[in-house]
Design brief:
This protein is an alpha/beta fold. It has one domain: Rossmann fold. About 35% of the residues lie in helices and about 25% in strands. It contains four helices and six strands; from the N terminus they run E-H-E-E-E-H-E-H-E-H. The chain has helices at about 20-30, 70-75, 85-95, 115-130, and strands at about 5-10, 35-40, 50-60, 65-70, 80-85, 105-110. The two termini are about 15 Å apart.
Length: about 130
Amino acid sequence: MNKLRIYVFGNTFVKEDIGALLIMPVLQRKFPEIQFILTDPNEDFPPKKEKDIIILDTVKGISSTTLLDFTNLQNIEKTPISPHDYDLLLHLLLLKKMGKINSVKIIGLPMYLVIKKELNKTIQIISSLL
């Protein structure tokens, strides 16, 4: 069976976008059966043949860690809540329309996270995906 993959986005130079990078080492220890992949969304993402994608990233406009899917992403276009990297949102929606991906789940972290609180919520969400 293939290892579950979670693509981790973040930027060490932007305080508001570093949350996923800060909690990734703890998540790797907690879930050794999951492959956490540090990802640059501007590179070749998602990998070919990857149809169901899970992303860990900062999301602007949320106050606590939240699991988002395509329904949420389509609604985000109409609201002030948006992924930190808006280009990623458009890219994912386009890939879905083209049939290149089936589903996406974004474990969204708030921009100003309280590490322990949001880490616990993230662990709960990841556990629910197993």
